[in-house]
Amino acid sequence: EVAAALTTSPSARLCLYGPPGPGKTQWACELAQRLSRPLLVRRASDLLDKYVGGTEARIRAAFEQAQTDGAILLIDEADSFLQARDGSGAHWETSMVNEMLTAMEAFDGIFVASTNLQDRLDAASARRFDFKVKFSPLDAAQARQLFRDLLDLLGLSNEGSQPPLAFDALVGATPGDFANVARQVRLAPSKRNPHSLFQLLRKELDFRQAPQGGGRRIGFV
Fold it and tell me: What CA–CA distance (Å, rounded) separates 16 from 114?
């Protein structure tokens, strides 16, 4: 609905948030294609500068280039530049956030910010976004459909598979997990069957959901 509205009113500030992998960046790419506009992507590594004032200059330049080119501007890892100012430990951090907010306010185009850490965003930035869109992991029905798409991509069929696959086990998976598995089977032809693909997806999901720092140790105890 948002994408359709932007075809007639191409000016908005959107915050796409959620865990890694559900398609935030891909949605921005699809939006650019639908609107026949270039997509200008800037990540933290593109904008952060070691010199005082350098990051602010790069932020301004990104918005100016998007305005000149008529491009949709996507800033990935936007939490790096819109972090809450009340916790800032240095003047340059506050200055960086102020510059981003000012540039957003003045930009007459489509600005998309994506983040995995929406709870770190400055309260003033949240008010400046027209829409805050959550990208969630897959439910069982979505996982089933995407699994069918993966089989079609690989020229495989799931008809009559025994035992039947329980897609409730893939709740919480993301399209990024499916993309990883599609790349894996290119290097492991023996895995090109429905049950092996399903197990690879389970491993991707289990790896992401494993506890950080509190899991089982490796080596001497």
Answer: 5
Task: Find, among 79, 65, 76, the residue nearest to 107 by Cα.
Answer: 65
Rounded-to-integer distance, Cα 84 and Cα 42, Å: 20
> What tens-digit pLDDT sequence spans the chain (221 residues)?
888 889 888 899 999 999 999 999 999 999 999 999 999 999 988 998 888 889 999 999 999 999 999 999 999 988 888 876 565 555 667 888 889 999 999 999 999 999 988 877 877 788 889 999 999 999 999 999 999 999 999 999 877 666 788 999 999 999 999 999 999 999 998 999 999 999 999 999 998 877 655 555 555 44
- Picking from 81, 90, 88, 83, the residue whose alpha carbon sits closest to that of residue 120 is 83
What does DSSP assign to residue 163? S
**Residue 82's closest CA among 45, 109, 44?**
44
Q: Are strands 72-75 and 110-115 parallel, antiparallel or unpaired?
A: parallel
Q: Tell me if residue 42 falls in helix, strand or coil.
A: strand
DSSP 8-state symbol, 11? -
Rounded to an integer, what distance in angstroms lies between the CA atom of residue 190 and that of residue 67? Answer: 49
CA 23 from centroid of its chain's CA atoms? 5
